[in-house]
Amino acid sequence: MHLIWKSIVLYLYIIFIYRLMGKKELGKLSITDFIVTILMAECAIYSITEEKVSIFTSIIPITCLAFAQITISFISLKSDKFRKLIDGTPSVIIKNGKLIFSTMSKLRYTLDDLITGLREHGVKSVEEVNYAILENNGKLSIFPKELEYPMPIILDGVIQYEVLEEIGKDIVWINKLLKQKRITLEEIFYAFYTKEKTFIITRKELL
User: Fold this and answer.
1) What pLDDT shows up at residue 63?
2) Could you give the CA distance from residue 50 to residue 66 in angstroms, rounded to a whole number?
3) Which of 82, 83, 95, 194 could disulfide-link to 150, CB 3.0 to 4.6 Å?
4) What is the CB neighbour count within 10 angstroms for residue 89?
5) Per the confidence metrics, is the pTM higher than 0.90?
6) What is d(CA 134, CA 129) in angstroms, rounded to the nearest whole number?
């Protein structure tokens, strides 16, 4: 009965913690979320398997891990540089039907991994793909050639110069766009370019 009681309490407590952290699906967890998940599981197992160990031996470190992760998530939301440092950035591994081997090598992403990812999306060959992006959580996003991938040009008020260069635009174009929309760079939460049109989401729209 003591073992059952511990298991139920820790199960309910971890559900509460994950609600507090705002996590939904395991497949969408970042690297830091995944690490915290493993550590929480280890903490829970310890007090469950050791009969003489208090349940608080698990609850206290689990709580500390949760608040540490909440703090990291909050800082990541405010700081683009910190977010990239912790979670990394999505990487383009196929562009216009061509493999970018340098990126794949850097990420240690093999051809077998890529072929498996393409098959999962029902894609037969690399030539069918306009863009393939390896996301922060390890998932492969595929954009077939008949679709046009929305290019993020501004994230959290930060201009993505590499994307600008890729779509053939520059800072002069950005400044002209801001002037037309009568907004400042700092007001923009997310802006993307697709089908020769620009879409902007401001911070005010999120409130």
Assistant:
1) 92
2) 23
3) 194
4) 13
5) no
6) 13
Distances from the Cα of 148 to the Cα of 59, 95, 151, angstroms: 48, 12, 9
Q: Find the helix packing angle between 2-21 and 31-49, rounded to 10°.
A: 160
* Cα–Cα dist 44/26, whole Å: 18
Q: What is the pLDDT of residue 79?
A: 79
Residue in this structure with the two tokens 């393939």, named with its chain if needed: 132
Q: How far apart are CA 52 and CA 43, in angstroms?
A: 15
Residues of the chain with pLDDT under 70: 1, 23-29, 146-149, 206-207
Residue 204's H or E segment, with its range, is none
Question: What DSSP assignment string belongs to 91-118?
Answer: EEEEETTEE-HHHHHHHT--HHHHHHHH
Residue 207: the pLDDT is 55
